[in-house]
Design a protein that fits this description.
about 75% helix; transmembrane helix; transmembrane; membrane
Length: about 140
């Protein structure tokens, strides 16, 4: 029949389990008249039945075992190469500070010196020749 293309789409919907009730009735009516479409529907039903016969439904214990292995794998997965920890900025920072305990005092010193320089610069006192603060820093560096 010339309408078989339209009904082929309905057969695909039938196989997928998403066919509308009205379309199912139209397909049944068409299959009564069209042997080719009737054979297609039978072929899909036989194929579906063969798949069910070949692969048994897993038991609940098998599903639980697989779920447990997947969850364990997720929990034990290492972060990919190239990422520090892959768990978030604050956790990575915390881990970095645990690995390098001198990072906190060094960071505080950098912030303190930057604050002093910014404060002196904003008051017009920084960077002058003979500045006692700069002399003191030069003596510390020497």
């Amino acid at each position: 029949m010339k309408d078989c293309g339209l009904f082929q789409r309905m057969i695909e919907d039938l196989v997928a389990g998403v066919i509308e009730v009205s379309d199912r009735e139209k397909l049944n009516e068409h299959c009564r008249q069209c042997g080719e479409c009737r054979e297609r529907v039978k072929w899909h039903e036989d194929l579906d039945g063969a798949g069910e016969a070949m692969v048994p439904e897993p038991t609940a214990s098998v599903c639980d075992a697989v779920r447990g292995r997947v969850l364990e794998e997720i929990l034990n997965r290492r972060p990919p190469a190239g990422s520090f920890g892959g768990r978030g900025y604050w956790r990575d920072l915390r881990d970095l500070l645990r690995i390098h305990p001198l990072a906190i005092p060094a960071g505080v010193m950098v912030l303190l010196v930057a604050a002093i320089f910014m404060g002196r610069w904003s008051m017009g006192l920084g960077g002058r020749a003979g500045d006692p603060f700069l002399r003191g820093l030069e003596q510390l560096a020497a």
